[in-house]
Amino acid sequence: MPEYGCFLACEEFRPAELVEQARMAEQAGFQSLWISDHYHPWNDAQGETCAVMTNGRFRLGVGSGEALNEHILGHVWPPASVRLEMLEKAILITRRPFNGEEISHYGSHYRVELVTQFCKGGGHAKPVMGTVCGDDVDEHVAELNAFAEAGFDRVHVSQIGPDQRGFFDFYRTKVLPQLQP
Questions:
Q1: Do 87 and 147 touch, CB atoms closer than 8 A?
Q2: What is the DSSP track for 20-76?
Q3: What whole-number distance in Å separates Cα of residue 89 and Cα of residue 109?
């Protein structure tokens, strides 16, 4: 069973709010926290450096993006349905090198050539996924179970917007109890 954690967005909340959210996450029963830091290794050496700096605990996090952070690229911002489709394809492409494959892919959203795992030291890293999927309990549970069945060892969820207390109460009382073994 994966470890279920909560993603906290430091670009959305002030430090005192993040501390309070971390407290609520612990009380809700989440097992870990993940806080955003937008860093991208540009080459293999930097990827290896990440693994060394984190003592082998490097995790790759992916998400569907947010106009606040991504609009600076100057591209048209796609609707959520397209971004989620892109995310799903990106996860499928990204997981294969973590299994030791070198891949190329030519699709409608992405073109990648000769992709290899940049964090080769130890080979234990797996992608981390954050997800938000509305207020339907069954949808949350099904989505989280899908990640567990896909072999993810950690799954982090987040709430975008001001109702953080409602989010933690929802997970504490309705979602996390259904995920316990």
A1: no
A2: HHHHHHHHHT--EEEE-------SHHHHHHHHHHTTT---EEE----HHHHGGG-S-
A3: 8
Confidence of residue 17 (pLDDT cuts 50, 70, 90): confident
DSSP string covering 118-176, please? S--SSS---EEEEE---S-HHHHHHHHHHHHHTT-SEEEE---SS-HHHHHHHIIIIIH
- Note the Cα 154 to chain centre separation in Å: 9
DSSP bridge partners of 156 = 5, 130
Residue 22 tokens read as 């971390």
Q: How far apart are CA 122 and CA 147, in angstroms?
A: 23
Taking the domains of the chain in order of start, what are their residue ranges?
3-179
Task: Look up residue 99 and give its two tokens.
Answer: 């299994």
Distances (CA, A) of 64 to 4, 81, 82, 98, 130: 19, 10, 9, 20, 9
Paired tokens of 51:
């693994």
- Indicate the average pLDDT of the chain: 76
Q: What is the pLDDT of residues 123-132, one digit of tens each?
A: 444 444 555 5
Q: 68: which 2 tokens?
A: 């606040």
Confidence (pLDDT) at 125:
45
pTM for the model stands at 0.54
**pLDDT tens digits, residue range 30-58?**
998 887 655 444 455 545 545 554 566 65
